Give the backbone structure.
Amino acid sequence: MSAAGTRPRITIEPEARPVIVLMNDNIIASTKEALILTEGDHPPVYYIPREHVAMEFLIPTDHHTTCPWKGEARYWTITGQGRAVENGAWAYDNPHAEVSAIAGHLAFYPDRLRIEVG
């Protein structure tokens, strides 16, 4: 893990394989245009273009977090089939210049949803 105050190495690259995000049997997102963001020693995160996300399953929340390297994130609760995943998706609407490629994309917690790649 990075020492406090030390900027972790962040890379953003296109994912060549299809990425699907599911909650139960509901397809929440499906794309062939995902980005993979790798930050320091954290697991990679898939960012999906917003237009490839079934936004009808997402309810905006008041939850926000701030990353010193990416900016402020806002969150959505994902609903479907009587289930809810609170703050299960997030996005950086105005990310810092170094990570501007993730603007217009949403990310999902892989421990709360199923993310299939390939």
About this structure: The chain has a mean pLDDT of 93.
